């Protein structure tokens, strides 16, 4: 079988789980995990930000600080290796990594052709002048925007009901994909959960690497189960 030329990889919280970053739906029954008794779906929304901005800012300040103490794991590193190696292995080959995760572990592992479709913890967005800034500290004290000086910075995160980033770039990559690989995602959140159907429509091969079967498992030609730090390097190498 010939090697795929263009690979599109989608990752979710499961790829960072072994770096010590909690997944979302890791509750005992696979239900929504909670933060201070709040469902993430109830805090990660524009409505929650209007209703209780301090609660939402504290939620993201806590997570922004926490991820800075975490390290990329063998799965992140294997995907960065694949991206670097693919063009030499297959003429004109490419690897596009679309992540739902808002940590920076793929980037720190060396992935470059990376689309963080749900935003990033280490970025702040000014709702007054629409500028974005690398940000590692808290936002709870309403720091001034480095561009316009107003105290209008919010987490640069795509909340439920908001449009994910770079959907055009994602659709362009999906349109030419020969192989679509989904790693560490429950397939609960759209539009990411629908990408496998796009892949099937254009005739790409589809592979799922996950700890357990996702909600979209039936759409994949092949599924391999296990912890990402084992099954991702096994697949890459
Ligand atoms: C949009 C930032 C319009 C926040 C996030 C009704 C039906 C269908 C859809 C909807 C509906 N009502 C509303 C919607 C749309 C909604 C949605 O899908 N809701 C869901 C809850 C039903 N989506 C939206 O609102 C999106 N916007 O639709 O806009 C639009 C669309 C297209 C074009 C134009 C307009 C915006 C969604 C973005 C929300 N923001 N994150 C934050 O992080 O604080 S989503 C959030 O969930 C995270 O980003 C996370 O990545 C994402 C998905 O979760 P997973 O990554 O899959 O994580 P999860 O815990 O669920 O699963 C972990 C998996 O890993 C498990 O399978 C587990 O087995 C596995 N695992 C665990 N450990 C390991 C492992 N695997 C390997 N190794 C391990 N060690």
From TrEMBL:
Q: Which UniProt keywords apply?
A: Cytoplasm, Hydrolase, Metal-binding, NAD, Transferase, Zinc
Superkingdom as given in the UniProt entry: Bacteria
Q: Where does Zn(2+) bind?
A: 126, 129, 145, 148
The catalytic residues are 118 (proton acceptor)
Q: Which GO terms describe its molecular function?
A: hydrolase activity
* Enzyme Commission (EC) number: 2.3.1.286
Show the catalytic activity.
Answer: N(6)-succinyl-L-lysyl-[protein] + NAD(+) + H2O = 2''-O-succinyl-ADP-D-ribose + nicotinamide + L-lysyl-[protein]; N(6)-acetyl-L-lysyl-[protein] + NAD(+) + H2O = 2''-O-acetyl-ADP-D-ribose + nicotinamide + L-lysyl-[protein]
Where is substrate annotated to bind?
60, 63
Recorded coiled-coil stretches = none
Q: Sorted alphabetically, which HAMAP family does this protein's record hold?
A: Sirtuin_ClassIII
Protein family membership: Belongs to the sirtuin family. Class III subfamily.
Q: What is this protein called?
A: NAD-dependent protein deacylase
Q: Which organism is it from?
A: Novosphingobium capsulatum
């Amino acid at each position: 079988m010939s090697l795929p030329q263009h690979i599109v990889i989608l990752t979710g919280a499961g790829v960072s789980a072994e770096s010590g970053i909690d997944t979302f739906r890791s509750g005992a029954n696979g239900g929504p995990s909670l933060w201070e008794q709040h469902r993430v779906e109830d805090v990660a929304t524009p409505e929650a930000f209007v209703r209780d901005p301090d609660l939402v800012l504290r939620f993201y300040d806590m997570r922004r600080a926490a991820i800075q103490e975490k390290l990329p794991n063998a799965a992140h590193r294997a995907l960065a290796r694949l991206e670097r190696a693919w063009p030499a292995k297959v003429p004109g080959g490419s690897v596009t990594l679309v992540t739902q995760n808002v940590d920076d572990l793929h980037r720190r592992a060396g992935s470059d052709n990376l689309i963080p479709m749900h935003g990033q913890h280490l970025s702040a967005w000014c709702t007054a002048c629409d500028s974005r800034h690398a940000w590692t500290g808290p936002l709870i004290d309403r720091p001034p925007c480095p561009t316009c000086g107003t105290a209008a910075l919010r987490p640069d995160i795509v909340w439920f009901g908001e449009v994910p980033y770079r959907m055009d770039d994602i659709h362009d990559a999906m349109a030419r994909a020969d192989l679509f690989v989904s790693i560490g995602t429950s397939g609960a959140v759209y539009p990411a959960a629908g990408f496998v159907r796009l892949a099937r429509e254009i005739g790409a091969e589809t592979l799922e690497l996950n700890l357990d079967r996702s909600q979209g498992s039936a759409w994949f030609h092949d599924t391999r189960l296990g912890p990402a730090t084992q099954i991702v390097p096994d697949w890459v190498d």
